[in-house]
Specification:
Length: 245
């Protein structure tokens, strides 16, 4: 039998070669299309970096300050900026909120979005309850819940009693009841609670209150204050705290 022409063999070989090339190209393309795309600069299989953890604030001597505008002013005096929160229409930093009541603080502490809590805290809350005529029984009940919550979760809790605010002279009786609860009950119920009595600094009654330790007017206006402690008052508060922490 006569052999096939060499040209035909070469054509067949080239045809087979092209077929193989096409198959290889097709396979490669299919494989590359099936692979998931990776973002530029991302290492395949690498874990996502952990979310940035918020730190408890404001901190002074390893203790987090908690409370209302009284503690907010103390934080500012210590060099912390307490920004205005447009969502709640008040200044806020951590667990300090200007205008905060005991009830509101309870809600914040139990909230899923509550700011982080430090192992050691200094808390003063209740002035707005007295000022807004919250029933004293309710205010004391709220304070009891706050102290129980903090005592369970913190290594050390320093509680300030409420100062005898001159502008709230008509409410001194309720203020006295509130402070009595803090001084007599909180320490007995919780071993990790310390109490700093503000009466030692500011006076205990309308007759003994030290007016020179309170702001006479609100900053930038002639509106009467006599609610918030001034710089001299805050300095004495810090001196008293230094004796227990």
């Amino acid at each position: 039998m006569a052999s096939e022409p060499k040209t035909l063999v070469m054509l067949l070989d080239q045809s087979e070669a092209l077929k193989l090339i096409r198959e290889q190209i097709g396979t490669t393309t299919t494989t590359s299309q099936s692979e998931p795309k990776t973002a530029v600069g991302v290492i395949p299989g690498a874990k996502k970096p952990p979310a940035k953890q918020l730190k408890p604030r404001p901190i002074w001597r390893e203790h987090q300050l908690i409370g209302d505008s009284m503690m907010g002013r103390l934080a500012s005096y210590l060099g912390h900026k307490v920004p205005y929160n447009r969502e709640i229409h008040s200044k806020q930093l951590g667990l300090i909120t200007h205008g905060q009541t005991t009830g509101r603080l309870i809600g914040t502490l139990h909230s899923a979005n509550s700011p982080p809590l430090a192992p050691k805290v200094i808390v003063m809350i209740g002035t707005n309850d007295i000022a807004h005529d919250t029933p004293i029984g309710k205010a004391i009940s709220n304070m009891k819940r706050i102290l129980a919550f903090l005592s369970k979760r913190c290594k050390e809790v320093v509680v300030l009693t409420l100062p005898p605010v001159p502008a709230m002279e008509a409410s001194f009786e309720n203020l006295s009841k509130f402070n009595t609860f803090i001084k007599e009950n909180s320490v007995l119920e919780h071993k990790n609670i310390k109490v700093v009595d503000m009466a030692v600094i500011f006076g205990a009654s309308t007759e003994t209150v030290k007016l020179d330790l309170f702001e006479k007017t609100f900053k930038g206006s002639n509106k009467k204050d006599l609610i918030h402690w001034n710089q001299d008052g805050m300095k004495q508060v810090l001196d008293a705290l230094k004796k227990v922490i």
